[in-house]
Amino acid sequence: MAKASPTTPTSRYRSKFEGRIAAALQKQGVDFKYEVVTLPYTLELQYTPDFVLPNGVIVETKGVFPTEDRRKMLAVKRQYPQLDIRICFMKADVKLSKAPRSLTYWQWAEKAGFLWCEGHIPTSWYTNAVQVHQA
Questions:
Q1: pLDDT of 10-25, one tens digit each?
Q2: What dotted CATH number matches 51-125?
Q3: Residue boundaries of the structural domains of the chain
Q4: What is the DSSP letter of 5?
Q5: What is the pTM (predicted TM-score) of this model?
């Protein structure tokens, strides 16, 4: 079996570019560590829900559900656990990625603890519920 040359990236890195950088550092004799530190950070952002129903239920509508929107929804849910946030997907069976075992939108929602619907907001989400009025 042939040994990888110092300029050949390995699968240890997230990208070929990172592999090339690592190989160059190794070639220069630099004793580096790769992805050994995790630094939490906070972004100051705002979330504006699509719909707030008379009973206080918040409904976010999604045709496309990219990674940044999923992160946002999880962050809002963590910061405001008292809110009833639900998601209405245009098509709930769409997969998050092309990977064979990728979750669908609805599977992600269930895993993350969000109630969800498809195509329209069910009347049960806004009828037979206590009305919340603001003063």
A1: 568 888 899 999 999 9
A2: 3.40.91.30
A3: 1-37, 51-125
A4: P
A5: 0.68
